[in-house]
Amino acid sequence: MSSAEPIRQYLKDYQRPAFAIDEFHLDFDLHEDHAQVRSRFRYRKLVADAPLVLDGVGLELLQLQLDERELSAGAYEKTSESLTIKTLPDQGWIQTVVRLEPQKNTSLEGLYRSGGLFVTQCEAQGFRKITYFLDRPDVMTSYFVRVEADRARYPVLLSNGDRISTRDLENGRHEAVWKDPHKKPSYLFALVAGDLGVIRDQFETRSGRHVELEIYAAHGRQERCHHAMESLKKAMKWDEQAYGREYDLGNYMIVAIDDFNAGAMENKGLNIFNSRLVLADPQTATDADYHAIESVVGHEYFHNWTGNRVTLCNWFQLSLKEGLTVFRDQEFSADMTDRGVQRIRDVDALRERQFPEDAGPNAHPVRPESCLAVDNFFTMTIYEKGAELIRMMQTTVGRKGFRRGMDLYFERHDGQAVSTDDFAAAIAEANQADFSQLKRWYSQAGTPVVRVQEQYDQASQEYRVTLSQSCPSTPGQPEKAPFQIPIRLGFLDSSGRELPCVAPEVRVNSDGAPLLELREAERQFVFTGLREKPVLSLFREFSAPVIVDWKRDDEELLFLMSHDPDGFNRREAGQTMALRVLERLVQALKCGETPEVNWGFVKAYGQALLDERISAAEKAGLLTLPSVALFAQTQPQVDALLWRRARRTLVGALGHAHQSALWEVYRRWHGVDSTSMATEVAATRELKNQALALLASTQTSQALEVLADQYASAKTMTDRMAALALLVESDHPERERLIEAFHEQWKSDSLVLNKWFRVQASADRDGVLKRVQALMGHPSFQVQNPNHVYSLLGAFGGNILHFHDPEHCAYPFFLGWVGAIDAKNPQVAARLCSSLGLIQKLEPSLQKQAQQEIQKVLELSTLSRNTRERLEPMMKLVSRG
Question: pTM of the predicted model, to two decimals?
Answer without folding.
Answer: 0.97
